[in-house]
Fold this protein.
Amino acid sequence: MELSHIEHIGIAVKSIDEARKYYEGILGLTCYAVEEVKDQRVKTAFFKIGQTKIELLESTDPEGPVGKFIEKKGEGIHHIAFATKGIEGVLQDLDASGVNLIDKTPRKGAEGLDIAFLHPKSTYGVLTEICEDKNK
Ligand code: CMX
């Protein structure tokens, strides 16, 4: 399996509007996209740094994955996403290696990427996303 780089780091925040004051006003990054991912019950905001992105995640539903995460652990790093090519084959390899897949087949995530999550219980506590931009 070949993972090429860290595509993004997802950070759970209570309010994107509030967190932007830090990422833009203090760190000097530029937010280039804000998008709601309805089936994940989140609003996202993206910042680019090198070839990696920071994805701020604001919950739109307290019972959604990010809402529950903030309730339990507070704001902070929510997941790490690795870019790959041939995501279906990568998921098959991970499955065969005994990794617990939340998504056995890819689905559409923010920015039109094909994404799949691995359960944090089988990745040393880090919710892990595998993603592929099939337009590249
Ligand atoms: N990182 C690390 N651990 C996490 C976690 C995270 N982001 N989210 C949940 N957990 C842990 C919990 O702390 C809990 O651990 P304990 O059993 O030790 O208490 C365990 O996982 C189960 O958590 P839960 O609150 O009971 O939640 P669920 O089992 O209902 O769901 C998970 C957990 C990971 C399967 C679910 O959040 C999920 O499917 N996540 C993938 C989808 C997602 O996060 N989407 C949002 C981002 C979308 C995007 O980027 O577009």
Notes: Residues 41 and 63 are 9 Å apart (CA to CA). The chain is about 20% helix and 40% strand.
